[in-house]
Amino acid sequence: MVEAGTKSLPAPLVQCIEELKKLQGIGHKSAQRILYGLLARGPEAFESLAQSLQAVPRLIERCPECRSFREAGQPCALCQDERRDRSSLCVVESASDLSLIEATGEFRGLYHVLGGLLSPARGVRPQDLGLDDLPARLEAKGVSEVILATPPTAEGEATASYIASMIGSPTVKVSRIGFGIPVGSDLQYSDSQTLSRALTGRRDYK
Ligand SMILES: [Zn+2]
User: Fold this and answer.
1) Statement: the pTM of the whole predicted model exceeds 0.70
2) Centre of ligand 1 from the C-alpha of residue 7, in Å
3) Ligand 1 centroid distance, CA of 24 (Å)
4) Distance from first CA to last CA of the chain, Å, rounded?
5) Residue 92, SS3?
6) How far is the CA of 109 from the centre of ligand 1 (A)?
7) Separation between Cα atoms, residue 105 and residue 126, nearest integer Å
8) Is 176 among the domain residues?
9) Ligand 1 is a single-atom ion; what residues have CB below 5 A from it?
10) What's the pLDDT at 1?
């Protein structure tokens, strides 16, 4: 829907605003602010933004191990870092949730980025989330604790429950981040302190 107040704008600006509004967390007002900010900086501002964005799909790839993003052809900064604790692995919905957990500084282990949540309704199956390879990876790495950090939503809980049931190894402890995060909400809406407490307050998952 085109907002009131855009009628007087030239069509190319309206189109840009509509594109910006597709980005997460950007509403109509923010989209306008971004666009006018760019216009104030001049044509170079548009070019450097467009170039950086265009390069991303070429220069970034998914790490086959943790499924997070890495620079194409380069070792994964997380999986290859010898200083990280290989005994624990944290399962997150997205690479952006991974960044949030990294920012807390509470977790120094390995990750598994699902890239979604299980949903029979939307046709998302365990193999779409890289879960078929997970037990082998846990064994190969000698992981002794898996922390389930999927969000406290219906799909997040169902995914956590599925992963816990598929691990089924008595030598691997499964825990769930303890929540200060409101039920039904996304990790993205939690501040770093809340997330930090949720990690330290993790509980055994039954
Ligand atoms: Zn990796």
Assistant:
1) yes
2) 47
3) 25
4) 46
5) strand
6) 11
7) 29
8) yes
9) 63, 65-66, 76, 78-79
10) 54
User: How far, in Å, from the CA of 171 to the mean position of ligand 1?
Assistant: 23
CATH number at residue 33: 1.10.8.420
> Are 152 and 181 spatial neighbours (Cβ–Cβ below 8 Å)?
yes
Find the 34 Cα to ligand 1 centroid distance in Å. Answer: 33
- Strand 110-113 and strand 88-92: pairing? parallel
How distant, in Å, are the alpha carbons of 103, 112, 144 from that of 170? 31, 20, 10
Place of tokens 């910006």: 20
Whether residue 161 lies inside any domain: the answer is yes
Neighbouring-strand partners of residue 70: 61
**CA 80 / ligand 1 centre spacing (Å):** 7
pLDDT in tens, 123-168: 999 999 999 999 999 999 999 999 999 998 899 999 999 999 999 7
